[in-house]
Amino acid sequence: MLASNEIHARVTKVLVQALGVEEHDIKPSATLRGNLGAESIDFLDIVFRLEREFGIKIRQGELFPDLVFLFATEVVQDGRVTDDGLAVLRAQLPFADLRDLKRDRRLNRIDDLFTVGLLSSFITWKLRGNGQAQYDVPVPASHQSAAEPTAISHYPASIAE
Known about the structure:
- This protein has a two-stranded antiparallel ribbon. The chain has a two-stranded antiparallel sheet with strand order 3-4.
- It has a single domain, classed as Orthogonal Bundle (Non-ribosomal Peptide Synthetase Peptidyl Carrier Protein, Chain A), CATH 1.10.1200.
- The chain is mostly helical and 161 residues long.
- Strand 1 (76-77) and strand 2 form a beta hairpin.
- It contains eight helices and four strands; from the N terminus they run ααααββαααββα.
């Protein structure tokens, strides 16, 4: 198992290559979008580079869950994470330390969760063989109707089962 400082150094290398940022700008608390300027296409590049750098496989949506962004208005309302939002985040980001977020629900944007530190935590989690993020996540009640299922998976049935 790699030491946490080695993981951080290699994540930093990936971000420098993927985003063209300076190494000194990459701190654990730096947000990928807000502080480092990542755009949608950059997230694919980051995943690809992390896979190569660490010799791991990252399934679609495992690191950057689509569902979190789909329900962003349900996850964050009036600058605060909702109870439904916290449940979705726990299910989709089991590698994330959400204790501070549970105590202080302020979050300006859902993008603020995706930091350099979160990437390092994800890599540590993957290298330990801790399974995968949950693909079928309960839909917040406000998005359900009597005719809709209570969970959504954006993966083919063979992967989600």
